[in-house]
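Tokens for chain A. Residues wanted.
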């Protein structure tokens, strides 16, 4: 399957942080044809091994399977669901969103509701409605009704957005953070064919709440080099200063120089830059952004692992629907493949 076909499937799947099963099942199916071994570790990361030559460097690729979302916290006696946030979500984007509540019987449609503006006081209208004042309405009439519908405290809730192509190379959908990284990882293994390096392609869990899956996966693998495949903020929309970020959608993979958790190892930075230049792959450099990726955690494993990040510039990340350029995703896979081929030269 092509990268866009994989991205569509992965984007539409549910994988609210800590509940990545549906994404993992898909990812295993997509990666299996290129794998010598598939293991799901105890934290439920999926680790796909592609063997290289004996004593060759071990490369860990990481793309996180989880997405930001919500979790049911309390159920009111009138049948409304109150929730907590899983991952970094701006409260201002929550109101009036369509969501899916994932119950043991399957997903239920819901709407995030709040006190209607018509009956708010003047000063209330000026305030941001925070998540603890919002609720999910699934059309239930009572707490008992909610129970009958199969909803339980702790059920994950995802945004209800469907993947769509809206331009020649432009697509929209939910959870591009980090399903596009997952799709790029599949494409990387597909294009890689034979390699000297041993490659571990890892779909990590619980990245959005603190890079947790990457920690255990990297400890187990003990890689010589780590590369995270993730998204970054595209700053090419009104109101963003050049100083805040220069990364733009459609201008090639973003190579992180620094973020809040990682200073890219000089050898890894050199490898990625030289590889991009040699192969005429367009790229952008990113510095000083808040937030981080699995690479930050991989880098701090055991005695340290030289690590870096290849990111896809995505608009509206951590919201119900994002936008990206398929060209950037394709170029990211090409860059990852070419970098893996170059590793033995530089490590
Ligand atoms: Zn991410």
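Reply:
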């Amino acid at each position: 399957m092509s990268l866009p076909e994989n991205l569509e499937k992965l984007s539409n799947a549910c994988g609210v942080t800590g509940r990545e099963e549906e994404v993992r099942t898909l990812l295993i199916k997509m990666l299996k044809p290129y794998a010598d071994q598939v293991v799901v570790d105890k934290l439920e990361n999926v680790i796909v091994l592609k063997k290289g030559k004996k004593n060759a460097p071990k490369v860990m690729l990481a793309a996180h399977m989880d997405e930001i979302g919500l979790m049911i916290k309390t159920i009111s006696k009138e049948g409304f669901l109150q929730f907590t946030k899983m991952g970094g979500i701006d409260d201002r984007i929550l109101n009036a969103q369509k969501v899916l509540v994932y119950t043991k019987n399957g997903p239920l449609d819901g709407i995030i509701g709040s006190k209607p503006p018509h009956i708010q006081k003047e000063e209330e209208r000026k305030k941001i409605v925070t998540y603890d004042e919002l609720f999910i309405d699934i059309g239930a009439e009572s707490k008992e009704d909610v129970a009958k519908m199969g909803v339980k405290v702790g059920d994950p809730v995802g945004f209800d957005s469907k993947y769509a192509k809206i331009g020649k190379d432009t697509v929209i959908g939910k959870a591009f953070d980090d399903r596009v990284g997952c799709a790029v990882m599949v494409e990387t293994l597909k294009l890689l064919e034979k390699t000297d390096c041993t490659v571990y392609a890892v779909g990590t869990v619980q990245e959005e709440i603190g890079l947790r899956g990457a920690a255990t996966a990297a400890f187990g693998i003990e890689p010589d080099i780590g590369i995270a495949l993730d998204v970054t903020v595209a700053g090419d929309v009104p109101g963003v200063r050049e100083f805040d970020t220069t990364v733009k959608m459609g201008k090639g993979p973003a190579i992180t120089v620094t973020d809040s958790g990682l200073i890219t190892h000089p050898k890894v930075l050199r490898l990625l830059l030289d590889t991009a230049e040699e192969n005429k792959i367009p790229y952008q450099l990113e510095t000083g952004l808040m937030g981080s990726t699995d690479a930050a955690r991989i880098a701090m494993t055991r005695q340290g692992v030289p690590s870096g990040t290849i990111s896809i510039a995505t608009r509206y990340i951590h919201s119900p629907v994002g936008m990206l350029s398929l060209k950037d995703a394709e170029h990211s896979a090409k860059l990852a493949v070419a970098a893996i081929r170059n590793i033995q030269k530089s490590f």
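The pocket of zinc ion is lined by residues 64, 177-178, 207, 230-231 (CB under 6 Å). The radius of gyration is 21 Å.
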